[in-house]
Amino acid sequence: ISHLEFGLLPQQYSYPSLFIYGHRASGKSHVMHVLLKELELPHATVSCVECVSAALLFEQVLLSFFGCEAASLLPRSPSLSDFVRIYRQQCSQSPAKQTRYIVMEKAELLRDTDANLLPALLRLQELDNITVILLSEIAWDKFRPNTGCFEPLLLHFPDYSKGELQQILSQDRHPSYSAEFYSSYINILLGVFYSVCRDLRELRHLAALNFSKFCEPLAEGKVKETDTHKLWRNIEPHLKKAMQTVYLREVSSVQWEQMQQMEEKETGALRGLSAHTHVELPYYSKFLLIAAYLASYNPARTDKRFFVKHHGKIRKTNFLKKNEKTSNHLLGPKPFPLDRLLAIFYSVVDSRVAPTASIFSQISSLVTLQLLTQVSHDDQLDAPKYKCAVSMDFICAISRTVNFDIVKYLYDFL
């Protein structure tokens, strides 16, 4: 906090730029907004997610400090020099009585903008008494541009400890139950999820998602609030199933409860299925799984036939070798390299997707959920190989949710 106070000195020139970093939901934005509001400091908050271009960023800053008239002076496609010129004009007409602050949320997205934008933002104090505060989830060493720039003052927000999470989550208690009862529930929840998830938002979501199940024996009159052990035995299998949906946030609380009720009504033939057969996957994970299934059950040389336009006419009789008369579905899934999976994925997905870290993390999530199996050794980092581990019925059900006819792309069904 002492570093933060040093950067927020309203009556004199503050430090030109602050770089505040830490994992998601560690209090960065909240602390900054409370400080700026309580100290009544002039500031402009810019979300780099919403401001997808430099023009929107410049407009938001001028609008916050000088009003609509200043923002309207920007040309249709403003450059950095246009922003500097207008900002300097407005500063001469309305000089700052105290330091102005620009708070850039999700500042790591600035790395994808023009190379000169970030260095210029860090030097804005050369124009006026202004401090730029960058809020980021990554460290400065991974943020610093290759061309070099003014070094900001670094401030790290560490993750919440288990005790701090216990205190924060316990404040969300249900009014129908005592604080001690809800605190014991949070203690049980953290005992299960703390080792795999320390994100406050995700833990808060999980707490709200599973609390009704935790209270069932109490509502039925089977136990008392003090029977923590019996309550734990009732909720334990439910929490273990919920661990499969950590960070897969496309399932709402109502949908999750409906899925659990469906599972309880299943027949004996269906009870042997894994819990993930009822978990809704993220949108792109579904297409990744579809691409993996196609890569496992289609010969590699048929990819051109299915996924390349204007490939020419190829007859199956000429395509089929003697040793390929057996159905690929009877032979089982075959391993495929990562680059083939991504090539099929980009062909079948109905929108343009950049090869970001999010796509690769979803592949890892599919492996964790045992929907994909990694068959290459861990030391083969350059060419990992996978196999699809789901059935035909399962992949058809997934395909229907995204309106994709997978049968048209399977070689066995030509």
Automatic annotation (TrEMBL):
Residues 281-410 form the Origin recognition complex subunit 5 C-terminal domain. The keyword Nucleus applies. Pfam families: AAA_16, ORC5_C, ORC5_lid. Keywords: ATP-binding, DNA replication, Nucleotide-binding, Nucleus. It comes from the Eukaryota. GO terms for molecular function: ATP binding; DNA replication origin binding. Residues 14-133 form the Orc1-like AAA ATPase domain. InterPro entries: AAA_16, ORC5, ORC5_C, ORC5_lid, P-loop_NTPase. GO terms for cellular component: nuclear origin of replication recognition complex. GO terms for biological process: DNA replication initiation. Residues 182-249 form the ORC5 lid domain. The keyword Nucleotide-binding applies. Transmembrane segments: none annotated. It is found in: Nucleus. Signal peptide: none annotated. Component of the origin recognition complex (ORC) that binds origins of replication. DNA-binding is ATP-dependent. The specific DNA sequences that define origins of replication have not been identified yet. ORC is required to assemble the pre-replication complex necessary to initiate DNA replication. Belongs to the ORC5 family. Component of ORC, a complex composed of at least 6 subunits: ORC1, ORC2, ORC3, ORC4, ORC5 and ORC6. ORC is regulated in a cell-cycle dependent manner. It is sequentially assembled at the exit from anaphase of mitosis and disassembled as cells enter S phase. This is Origin recognition complex subunit 5. It comes from Seriola lalandi dorsalis. The lineage of its organism: Eukaryota, Metazoa, Chordata, Craniata, Vertebrata.
